[in-house]
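The instructor's notes for this session suggest beginning with a concrete chain rather than abstract definitions. Hand out the sequence below and ask the class to guess, before any prediction is shown, which regions might be ordered.
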Amino acid sequence: MATVKKPTGNKRFRQATALVEDRTYSLQEAAALVSKVALAKFDETVDVAMCLNLSDKGVQPPRGMVQLPAGTGRSVRVAVFARGPKADEAKAAGADVVGAEDLMETVEKGQIDFDQCIATPDMMGIVGRLGRVLGPKGLMPNPKLGTVTMDVTSAVKAAKGGQVAYRPDKAGVVHAGLGKASFKAADLEKNLKAFFEAVLKDRPQAVKGTYIKRAHLSTTMGPSIALSMPDIWTLA
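After discussion, reveal the predicted structure:
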């Protein structure tokens, strides 16, 4: 009978998991460890998952943007809804896709070749028609997020330079990519601190008790690393 060879990925995962102790890690410790437990041959994304306390009545789920000091480590395609001089400004700033009604028609067909979407205020009349398409993907421009603005140059550069959005899912869990496994530990730590500081600052007033209940760090294919909540709470 032929011997069945076990998948090498399982062995590598067990080896990586063995490096993670059964305890919580400070942000500094986690940033240093996460690259050591990356399994894939490609440069894995470092993801954070945190559970927010949004169970109290009247709590409005937070939503915002965070500028990561060390960037995201990935190329971001940006679309801008604008006309005339503002369209030219967007192109000069490095936007990948720029348009008005023509871009609306493309998106309506399900052709979404971008990661972030920006619009000038005068474009919201046509962008509003795309809510059912862009909304579920988290791409709908929003004044609170700085993605509905006349300053398209700053918005495009921010999106290209390491800006990430956060919003909880129905279970109150926030997921975000905060860098790459190839990043230096110090850079990952900077991104982690910036992200948690922004989320803590955006705490809804109606929340009672602990806001961030737990958080974990992992790479795309690596094991999860539990983060020390007292270390995170000090960032508030």
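Then share the key points. Strands lie at 45-52, 64-67, 78-81, 97-99, 116-119, 163-166, 173-180, 212-219, 225-226. The first strand starts at residue 45 and ends at 52.
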